[in-house]
Amino acid sequence: MSLNAILRSSALALAAVTGLAAAAQADTYKWITFKPQGAGDAQAITTQWLVDQFAERTGGKHSIEVFWGGSVAKTGEIPEALAAGVGDFGDIITPYFPDQMPLNNAVGFFIPQPMNTLQVGQFMEEMHATYPEFSQELESQNLHAFGFRPLEDYGLLCTKPVKSVADMKGLRIRSYGFAYPKLIEALGASPVSIATSEAYEALQRSIIDCTPIGPALARGWKYDEVAKYYIEVPLGASFGHLLAMNLDSYNGMDDETRAVVDQLGKDYLVEYARVVDEDAARVRELWKGDLGVEVIPFPKEELLGVLDDAGVKEVRQEWIDKANGLGVPADEIVKRFDFDTPS
């Protein structure tokens, strides 16, 4: 082979290697979500905020493409799809996977509890920073949580006024998850298992009288069209979603990009909590107007009085036993759910 041919071949090889290196550095990651792009709620809005921030903070070197509305994986499929590498990022509705994620479902066993949206997210951040078992639970499934998305503060949206525990006797209240069935029974009402998507019709047709929910979500699902009483039962914020990554994708990032993701997870919680609070305040103003939803206070002491109920205690003990069995000091952690303990 002539010298020119050798040089030309070497130049082509170098160009190919350089091109591959550039391609490896300029990544487009895939985010799979159940949320519709046009939902216009805090979850969809802040997902787009995070995606935009990721591109900005990496100087345009990396980007995230969002596959909205379950187009790649449905709600119940997302953990498995993420673990298999079908997506790099995704949001997981944690309470849907109690057997896979018992530790990360801690808050769901302790309703009512005193923390708001931001505080619940900070609690989860603290758990992951303090107790490696929380992260290991996900790592065993090839997942990594880089952020947390709690739900808003919850009360009860009802089709009739409720002013005390006495008014709850005999009501049919939508139930789901761990704590709600026993809590509803302790309040003298009947728990009814209804999916979120079916609750509008259930309220409209008097299949249920109330559903636990916050103002922003009530407006988002339009439940407030058929239920006109919002009862300020201090249930606290529920933990909702993990902002998760495929563990291999996370570990495969360079240190700089991984640091961006880590910080974005923390910043996301603050931005999300701000948007949720603004949205809830906006809805409350709408309720005062044409929507005509009456907000009714509820005596906190009556709600807290049912915490001594055997069924409520049983649910809480269930998580304590699971956590202790996994080597986590549950007795210390559950103090955070005490209404007399500062968050």
Automatic annotation (TrEMBL):
* Superkingdom in the source lineage: Bacteria
Q: Where in the cell is it found?
A: Periplasm
Cite a single Pfam family from the UniProt record.
DctP
The record lists the membrane-crossing segments as none
Q: Has UniProt tagged this entry with the keyword Transport?
A: yes
Q: Does the keyword Signal apply?
A: yes
Q: Where is the signal peptide?
A: 1-26
**Which GO annotations describe the biological process of this protein?**
transmembrane transport
InterPro entries, sorted: DctP_fam, TRAP_DctP_sf
Q: Name one GO cellular component term.
A: periplasmic space
Name of this protein:
C4-dicarboxylate TRAP transporter substrate-binding protein
